[in-house]
Amino acid sequence: MITSVPVATVATRSDVLRRLELDVRRRVDGRASGDHATLTIGPGSERAGARAYEPGDDARLIDWNLTARSAETFVRQTEADRESQTWIVADRSASLDFGTTTCEKRDVVLGAVAAFGMLRLGGGNRIGLVMSGTDTLVHRPDRQGRNAFMAALSAVYDTPRMQAPPGEGTDLAAACRWLQGAARRRGQVVVVSDFLDPDRWQREIRLLALRHEVIGVHVTDPRELELPDVGILGVVDAETGRQRYVSTGSRGLRERYAAAAGARNQAIRTAIHAAGADYLALSTDRDWLTDSVAYVSRRRTLRAPGPAQSYARTMPTAPDGAPVTRPGLALR
Questions:
Q1: Residue 302 maps to a domain
Q2: Same domain, 70 and 194
Q3: 144-176 per-position pLDDT tens digit
Q4: Which end of the chain has fewer CB within 10 Å, C or N?
């Protein structure tokens, strides 16, 4: 039996996503005009000439025909592939269904997915999506174009609120582990979560960062960092249902809570950096879109062609032709 979706639900979803898209495009206009500043030499399939062999070059790139004619060793150069592949991991666990300001953390996750996805649309770029924290691991294959991305964004919007912890194989670590096999081509991975799962996700992000450019987007709410003085307060763990009553009138309790919450956030930030990923903090009490666009614009400036590109040509290369770097080392 096929059940119809209520018209009001469809209208609400369409209106929210349309306004979200317009807001992102309006903020991005003039801040980001393209994926690349100019044509560059890099891993690719289109030949772009040759150059003299230098110590550290991969022997598999030697142009034997040119070497035989010139009596000097030359290596092939190719134009870097212009299209890119982006995967977004969106955490939809019960801990994201919380917010005490203008929105909930799940709304910020939706906005961050929209911002990073729309900033990568066009130019043949492909965008894929993985959702963790639900009853089953949900994934949408990487596709080109606006329609495919808006369909993936609709799936994020339609995710129901969870009343229990993620099932076996559906947490954040499992999503990152699945992506290690699915994202075969070097690209960008954006992980959007509050990172309140057990620390298993750090190892999986570290493995992703060995091959991809990984960005950890940390979503928080100000009430997670400090307790208000409101007397006896009942608090409930959104994922386990455990409930406790605390006396927020105790100044010592509020200070200990703030210190523990600050230490936890700092530990998450340190773990993301230690895994070789970049870190971006978004909060329900700030303009998440401005923070996201400013971050991407800042990274575009950092990725401008510079001396590091010439150094990268002398680095050892992997079988796919990409420079081999240590985890956490990005040549920009």
A1: no
A2: no
A3: 888 888 888 888 888 888 877 777 788 899 999
A4: N
